[in-house]
Amino acid sequence: MAKRQRELVTHTFKGPRFEDHGLDLDVLPDLLAYKTILVETAKELWRRRHPDRQRLPKGFEDSLKLKFYELRPGSTAVPLVREIECENNEAQLKLFEPPPDELDEAVQLVADTIDAAANDQPFPDDLPASVTPLFANYGKTLREDEFFEHNIPDRPAVTRYTVAVRDKLSRSSQEPYEDAIELVGEVRAADLDGTSFWLRLDNGTKVPGRFEPDQEAIVVEALHEHATRRLRIIGRAEFDPATGSLKRITAVDHLAIQMLAEQPVDTSARPIWEIAVEIGATVPEEEWADEPPDVSKRLDHYLYGSGEGGE
After folding, report:
1. pLDDT tier for residue 310 given thresholds of 50, 70 and 90
2. How far, in Å, CA of 173 to CA of 152, rounded?
């Protein structure tokens, strides 16, 4: 499989500490924090585009690795390089540039967010709200006379990240935030006069929400048939900034009834045969030796004392 290196962004450290073009080891955590922001943003962008998928594709996180091979002057500039694996051969790689993906978008989106914070503008709508708290760890080593620059290929302006910008982003992450949701749960209660309901998720969490008057019939049906029905919701919800947990559903854009059998299969669940083998391994070998050799064929006989053929 052919590989191609592509410079994603140049992360430059500016300030008196970096005028000798050397990189102080104490600032390396900020590079890792920046990478974490990019990777988590890319993952959330992918999930939004694939709401029917419960897991990231195999090898997705491995494809987001970043490296640097040199330090450039201009204070201390660190070109962050991405190594892309392609099934195309080397000759084809020289002719065709791999298309941008979620990581490329994440670099632009993070820069847009920093620019917005610096200019007292609203954050981009595409920014995953769960990413905002991560800025608290980015820039911890910055001093008052220092800042970072993000120089992104084909982006006309350089993005500047200062202590003031970090503080603004950190403050915003301490407030409850809203984000897009897609949930399936059991309606446990509904207040028709107050147009509100309670939804119990698969993990047992109960979440309050509000619905529009024209959605009442669907909510009532889901409540009345809650033993065999589940409610699928697409909309927005408020999350706790400290834990990232869902606090309440703030807007419902789409409602649909699902039969229990129609719910997506949890592909992350362990197969039953694995659990059976694990339990069997805890039984001593001498116990297995005492078991009748025909137990699988005459199970009813040994369990209930019935005759041959279960009669």
Report:
1. very low
2. 25
Contact at 8 Å (CB) between 102 and 42?
yes
Of 28, 288, 253, 234, the closest CA to residue 137 belongs to 28
- Of the ranges 41-50, 149-158, 236-245, which one carries the lowest mean pLDDT score? 236-245
- Read off the tokens for 43: 């993952």
Predicted model pTM? 0.61
The 3-state DSSP class for residue 92 equals helix
Query: CA 240, CA 238: separation in Å to the nearest integer?
Result: 7
**At residue 34, does pLDDT exceed 60?**
yes
φ and ψ at residue 24, rounded to 5 degrees:
-65, 125
CA-wise closest residue to 149 among 42, 71, 75, 68: 75
To which residue do tokens 């991405």 refer? 82
Residue closest to 205 by CA, chosen among 241, 255, 248, 163? 248
More confident residue, 73 or 26: 26
Q: What secondary structure, in 3-state letters, does 71-84 show?
A: CECCCEEEEEEEEE
